[in-house]
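Sample entry (451 residues):
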Amino acid sequence: MGQTSRQVSGSGRPWLGGARPGLRFLIRVAGLLLVLGLGVRLARAEEPPLVILGPATSDSVVLWVQTDRPGPIELRYHQHPRGDRVALASGRARSESHLIERLYLTGLEPGSRYCGTLWFEGRPVPVTFQTVPPEPRDITIAFGSCVYVNDPAIPKGENGGEYEIFDHIARDAPDLMLWLGDNVYYRPGDWDSAEAMRERTRKDRLRLPNLWPLFANTQNYAIWDDHDFGPNNADSSFPQKGEALEVFRQVWPGGTYGQDQIPGAFYRFSWADVDFFMLDDRYYRSKEVMYGPAQMAWLKQQLESSQAPFKMVVGGCQMLNPVAPYEAWAVYPRERQELLDFIEQERIEGVVFLSGDRHCAELIRLHPKGGYPLYEFTSSPLTSSLHAMTDKEKDNPARVPGSWFSDRRNYGLARVSGPSGQRLLTLECKDSKGQLVWTLQLRERDLRFSP
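Predicted structure, serialized as tokens:
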């Protein structure tokens, strides 16, 4: 495989165009300023303020900040290219809020890009953010899972690496970054308390300066899997699951998680004409179900109400793969078939699945009788260890030939383009060096039922 790209199925061609030149320049400048600022801060034995761009609407954006001490936070920003008006947003990091503050930026223009600088005690962090476009336009969505960061205090058993992958994701200038779970790896003792979970998350992020420009220049949306929920393979019996959910909501910019009387890390959001259904595969997992009746009812209702040409169903574990040597949804065949039957019976079109967990990348394709082809793009790991194919996995009839990749760490891109009614979804698997491994193009009409 190496650095050779290939078309794994369908028509079309690899798209290597990447980011718009102006946006690439902004992100490179932002990254340079962050690195230069880091050198000064380290000399002063100070931690940089961590900044994560979060959910956006057509006229608002959430900006998450964590500092190393209490104090005032100020953001000055303007429309890009430079507008006439410079806006100001301010807040304060407080000890009782774990030095976490959220700035809620409102009154913004739909489908517009902004840039600015966040200041904390004279320490600047450049940011660029955008609002949701009201009409179909070209969109680039990056995604991946399994972010393991080596800890100097643990001399053996560490398996993180290729952290430069985040530099390459940032250079692709995605509009969105989807974190598909295992976004931090709790070690023994971390999952015993909310305080230890928060501290592990903070320390791991501080150890990854490669990650900071991506956090500060892309809208970030996250779900969890077992390692940022609790112990390995943890499920609903985990006694600290309430604390884990509280921490997850604190350490990500957030939005609306779960529903009234239905706690969890699941939610829905939209970007232009694409809908995303972010699932929680841990809070309700048991011996019988992975998502549970309440979340499944929510998902069905949300899919049925969506008019999007592409409906991205996003989960931590594999959902379509029939070969399930580990924790895939195939371990729960009744619940899995329930959703597949619902898609067919209600004629829900445009469904595509994104997943992580597996420490390899692959593309799964199922073609239910009477339906259209269902695809699942599994992207993993970002920095954790790689998984070698087992004998059981070698002859998987549902795997798109040539799509298995575990030579290096990897990430996924989903590019949506084309006019309304003729949208095109281009899926790309890229390695840790930003090289294209394979690509697949799906037309809007490819994911429809026959008349």
